[in-house]
Amino acid sequence: MAIRVGHELHKRRKGRNIGVGLVLVAFVVIVFGLTVVKVTNGDPMQGFDHVTRPEMQPAEAAQ
Amino acid sequence: MTDATIMPHSQRGEGSFGDYVALLKPRVMSLVVFTAMVGLFAAPGALHPFEAFCAVLFIATGAGASGALNMWWDADIDVVMKRTAGRPIPSGRVAPDEALALGLGLSGLSVVMLGLAANWAAAGLLAFTIFFYAVVYSMWLKRSTPQNIVIGGAAGAFPPMIGWVAATGSVSLEAVLMFALIFMWTPPHFWALALFMKSDYEDAGVPMLTVTHGRKSTRRHIWVYTLLVAALAVGMGATSIGGPLYLLVAVVLNLLFIKGAWDILRRDEDSAQADGYATEKRFFFLSLVYLFLHFGAIWAETLLKPVGLGGW
């Protein structure tokens, strides 16, 4: 039977790693959510810079 | 600044996740979140709810980043002051370099993400706010002039303006008024704290007004700034972000605030020491409620507008 000596330091490191992991997951979710909102918001835009392009408006809307 | 004097070698860089969160000054962040939200929702522009959530989140992250940079720079004086000796760097739980890296990393991330979520005017204002707090206030003003918190108060006053700009894309009079309210509120708030923290700032060599001009002068300064902020706060009731509810809240709170400042002005050090600075402490806590309720009333006016009850 293996004996593992637990140390308070390991607990702290584990907590830190879990915390950083959760923050990274939350960040990915936020970027994904923002992308979905920006793309589905209805305004014609080019995905790379989220800037509205009037020339991309349909002909009747542009008049 | 050397970290060798601050922390024992064995503890370097082994802080818990909570220690890194503490570097971001969560209590200051909560005020930033609230005032930025009010600025954002009181503005006439319309952001998608998720964009608004992200905008507030990244404004708060930027505020946290500037807090980490402030703690990195001030570690040498934080270790001297009782109020700040338990912070992660002076207590040796986080290395100064880590705080610097976290502050710089989150600064860049928050500015870029706010630009993508809302607009680049808001992002630019956030970048300026971080620079103002970390460089202009922490590195320059704090240790060189008793006007440190008067001018430095601008850093804490920007969040509602950033929220407003995030929603509208530009600065307007209402955004400037919300900025001015926090800007004028900051000096009496911090000077009341300096009065009852007694020798903390003196021990650290920070030229607070209590140290350079004495306590009697500080009491006079609190009185004058309280009158100024009261006039501004009540006057805001007549603008488009005000309304009957806001005006009622502002009149009651400012009467209490002026009464508190008057009590502070009339006291001398002997009577203050005799009751453990009870009046100054009461004024300090009132000042927290004061700001929260003013912005709460602005928000309430915004919420009441769709049902025809908010505003004038």
TrEMBL record, chain A:
Keywords: Membrane, Transmembrane, Transmembrane helix. The chain crosses the membrane at residues 20-39. The keyword Transmembrane helix applies. This is Cytochrome C oxidase assembly protein. It comes from Poseidonocella sedimentorum.
From TrEMBL, chain B:
Keywords: Cell membrane, Heme biosynthesis, Membrane, Transferase, Transmembrane, Transmembrane helix. The keyword Isomerase does not apply. It catalyses: heme b + (2E,6E)-farnesyl diphosphate + H2O = Fe(II)-heme o + diphosphate. InterPro entries: Protohaem_IX_farnesylTrfase, UbiA_prenyltransferase, UbiA_prenylTrfase_CS, UbiA_sf. GO terms for molecular function: protoheme IX farnesyltransferase activity. PROSITE patterns: UBIA. One of its GO terms (cellular component) is plasma membrane. GO terms for biological process: heme O biosynthetic process. Converts heme B (protoheme IX) to heme O by substitution of the vinyl group on carbon 2 of heme B porphyrin ring with a hydroxyethyl farnesyl side group. This is Protoheme IX farnesyltransferase. It comes from Poseidonocella sedimentorum.
